[in-house]
Design a protein that fits this description.
There is one protein chain. With 388 residues, this protein is of the alpha/beta class. The chain has helices at 25-36, 44-57, 68-78, 95-103, 122-128, 203-212, 221-224, 246-257, 259-277, 312-321, 337-342, 349-357, 369-385; strands spanning 61-65, 86-90, 107-111, 134-138, 155-160, 167-168, 171-172, 179-183, 196-200, 283-284, 299-303, 358-361. The chain contains 13 helices and twelve strands. The strands form three sheets. It has a seven-stranded mixed sheet, with helices on both faces. The protein has a three-stranded antiparallel sheet with strand order 10-11-12. Helix 2 packs parallel to helix 8 and helix 3 (68-78) packs across helix 6 (203-212). The longest helix has 19 residues, at 259-277. The mean pLDDT is 96. It binds pyridoxal-5'-phosphate (PLP).
Length: 388
């Protein structure tokens, strides 16, 4: 069959947006209530969202922030990462994992990954651990990073942007390291449009982030303006503006309530993709861990580029013509211009290979099985047409 990019009929009439959020009426009603409540910035709904997340994760402290990136930055800063310190991280991640290290004047040390899990390689960690002060472990796509037992050897920070439902063996993401940062960006498993959450057991770090996220002030704004306040407040340190708003938390509270239900829906789509695609000679499907739990955030396939006549960008364009959106997770950080200029001699073969091969298929709780069938049919049609 002819792909749409060659003049054939597109697989779908409407465009399947990659990472479309699954928003229900409860979120919409809560946002409207918030807008009418008289307080729309950081306030009671943020505190409820934090409390619910703390219970969900069974952690001592949870702090809502404007993004996962803000959380990673404040964790590193609060733990004393600064000029002269080295931080290990996989290069196969989103750029913000590395950017925050640069912002603090510290040095990122990029590590390669395991091909099967797309997560940082344990060998690479052990080879580099002596020279570093901290390690940021990314639970890529929701697959638990292999960092059991490392917390006693190095400052371990979890980039848990993809990992709300992840478990490493028996331990939930958010409790594996000294602190973790989650993302509620628009495409994530639970969303607040933009937003993040830090979890930690470290009371000192909690106290630092609580103050630093809102200008360094001793009192939250909504407490400064409430009926019992004397309006007095004081800057204890030069803080940032990294807080979440009640409008965003209004969405998050209901997204979090449905988290297991959404997980089950994504699991059905995941299993459908794997059953349909695992024996396809043009691609490699993603693995699940033997123990623990994958958060099923991203379904990342790898194209066997030597079996087809076109490159990945062409496949992405061809899928667009079929009305299917896809994503790339990721182009390794050390391949981006800024980092290439900074570290021109780094060579990480697995990260570089995967950077050219990966393609993320749509995977959200709002998708129907028919949507997933369209993705599979369009992908199979295109790959077969361009067989080498
Ligand atoms: C692995 C990883 N880390 C960090 C982030 C940053 O999250 P945020 O956009 O909430 O700052 C992302 C965002 O997509 C990500 O994929």
């Amino acid at each position: 069959m002819k792909p749409a990019i060659e003049g054939g009929h597109p697989q779908r009439k409407t465009f399947l947006v990659f990472g479309k959020p699954d928003i229900h009426n409860e979120e919409i009603e809560e946002v409207v209530k918030t807008l009418k409540s008289g307080w729309i910035s950081h306030g009671p709904r943020v505190e409820k969202f934090e409390q619910d997340f703390r219970h969900y994760k069974n952690v001592s402290y949870a702090l809502a922030l404007s993004s996962c990136t803000a959380g990673l930055f404040l964790i590193l800063k609060g733990l004393g990462i600064k000029e002269g310190k080295k931080v290990l991280l996989p290069s196969f991640t989103f750029v913000s994992t590395a950017n925050v290290i640069i912002h603090l004047g510290a040095e990122p040390v990029f590590l390669d990954i395991d091909e099967d899990t797309m997560n940082v390689s344990l060998d690479e960690i052990h080879k580099n651990m002596d020279k570093a002060h901290a390690l940021i472990a990314v639970h890529l796509a929701g697959y638990p990073a292999p960092v059991s037992g490392l917390k006693s050897k190095i400052l371990l920070i979890e980039d848990a942007a993809h990992a709300v439902e992840t478990y490493l063996d028996e331990t939930p993401a958010g409790k594996i390291g000294h602190a973790a940062s989650f993302s509620f960006y628009a495409t994530k498993n639970i969303t607040t449009a933009e937003g993040g959450m830090v979890t930690t057991e470290d009371e000192e770090l909690y106290n630092y982030i609580k103050i630093a996220r809102l200008h360094g002030l001793s009192k939250d704004a909504w407490k400064r303006y409430d009926a019992h306040s004397t309006n007095s407040y004081e800057a204890i340190l030069p803080g940032y503006k990294f807080n979440l708003t009640d409008i965003q938390a209004a969405i998050g509270i209901h997204q979090l309530k449905r988290i297991e239900d959404s997980y089950k829906k994504r699991k059905k789509i995941w299993e459908f993709y794997t059953n349909e695609l695992k024996d396809n000679k043009f691609i490699i499907t993603p693995n699940l861990p033997e123990r623990g739990r994958h958060a099923l955030h991203l379904y990342i396939i790898r194209l066997r580029l030597n079996t087809i006549k076109v490159d990945r960008s062409f496949i992405i364009q061809a899928l667009k013509h079929e009305n299917i959106g896809t994503g790339i997770h990721f182009k390794a950080v050390h391949l981006h211009k800024f980092y290439r200029n900074m570290f021109p001699h780094i060579h990480l073969p697995v990260s570089e290979k995967l950077s050219n091969e990966v393609l993320s298929l749509p995977l959200t709780a709002g998708m129907s099985l028919k949507d997933a069938q369209d993705v599979v049919s369009a992908l199979k049609k295109i790959l077969k047409y361009y067989e080498r």
